[in-house]
Structure formats: structure tokens, C-alpha cells
Amino acid sequence: MTFDITKIDISQIDFAKGGGLIPAVVQDADTLQVLTLAYMDEAALRETLDSGQATFFSRSRGGRWRKGETSGDFLNVVSVTPDCDGDAVVVKVRPVGNACHLNRISCFGDEDAPGVGRIARLERTIHVRAQADPNDSWTARLMAQGPKRAAQKVGEEGVETALAGAAGDEAELASESADLIYHLLVLLHARNMVFQDVLDVLARRAQPAKDDS
User: Fold this and answer.
1) How many CA atoms lie within 13 A of 178 on its CB side?
2) Separation of alpha carbons 213 and 166, rounded Å
3) What number of other Cβ atoms are within 10 A of residue 212's Cβ?
4) What digits encode the pLDDT tens for the residues 49-90?
5) Is the predicted pLDDT of residue 4 greater than 70, yes or no?
6) Which residues contact 150 (CB under 8 A, 6 or more apart)?
7) Gyration radius (Cα) of the chain, Å
8) Does residue 131 contact residue 141 with C-beta atoms inside 8 Å?
9) How far is residue 210's CA from residue 213's CA, in Å, rounded to a whole number?
10) pTM here?
11) Are 159 and 167 in contact, with CB atoms under 8 Å apart?
12) In whole angstroms, what is the distance from residue 205 CA to residue 89 CA?
């Protein structure tokens, strides 16, 4: 797996403030769900940056701990970002399996990725199902027919969503909107794109217009 870890200046991290440890907030890089809170000493941070897999200092064990060594549920690191005081970091990861030792996605409750994070979770599901047997998966069948068929479904679902918006009740509109979003994500996947590409465009459009005067 490839990863693009932010190369931080470890000499600027203040390990002394916490008695040799800094808090590490672990966040899913795609859904932005907070997965766990752990601690790092300097050696754990260096190993994380060198290996690309989240490694911590276990206060209960009194030593190094790489997530997944015993469970197989690794945390593949995308970026490590220090806070403004240099005494804590956010570690964005793409998890393999669950982050919590209780076999849950997150250590902070049973809830799956909330809000817009559910889009990224759905994208992962589409990625998995696209590789399934087309006889067993609608997603795989749709992907096998190519982007044009997926685009056609987006058009059909768009019309149905519009009709539900004009004359249907709230439940129908929500259901048709879900179908539309699902097929849009399949189309993006078929074109080797992700929903973040759409969000990037929206972010650029949200920026104040430059004053050309």
C-alpha cells in the first residue's frame, strides 16, 4: 500500500511536556471518524513515520505497541499532523479491520462513520462489491457493463428523485435520493474517481471570488 506521510520535524515535538509521551488522535482518513486515542513516545513516532503503520507506546504494557501485530487489524498511516503547540498529533489512517480491541470500528461507541463520512464508507463497500461475482452483486453487474450503463442509471435515478421531490412524500424523496447517490458513487468508481473529487470542486466554488478590479 502506498502512503503519503507528512514529514514532520520530530525535533519540534514537545515530548517533555507529557513526561515523554504525546497524545495521538487516530482518525479515519476517508470518513474522518475518530477511531481511538493513543500515546506515542519519540521512538513510536519515528517507527510510525518509517513503517507507515501506526505504532504507539502502551502505558499499561510499559512499552512499544504496533496496532495489528496480534489482531491483524492494522492502521495504515496516511498523514501525521502535529497541533499548534507541538505536544499532540492527529494520525490519519486507512484501517485494515477494526480499531477497537472490542471488535468495533471505533473505541468511541458503536456508531459507524457519521454524517458525510458515510459516503466514504459506502465507497469502500462499492469497491469491495465491484470485485464480486456479477451473478451475486448488482454493483458488480453494473460495473461490468461499464461507465455508460452507470451513467444511464444516474440519469434514471435523477428523474425519479426529481419526481419524488415534486410530488412524493419525504420518505420517498429520501429513498430516491439514496438511490441517486449510490449510483453516482458507482459511476465515479467506474471512472476511477471518488466523491472527494466532487467535494474539491465544491470547496473551490465556495471560495470568495477574487476582486479583479
Assistant:
1) 8
2) 42
3) 4
4) 999 999 999 998 888 989 888 888 889 999 999 999 999 999
5) no
6) 142, 143, 183, 186, 187, 190
7) 21
8) no
9) 9
10) 0.69
11) no
12) 30
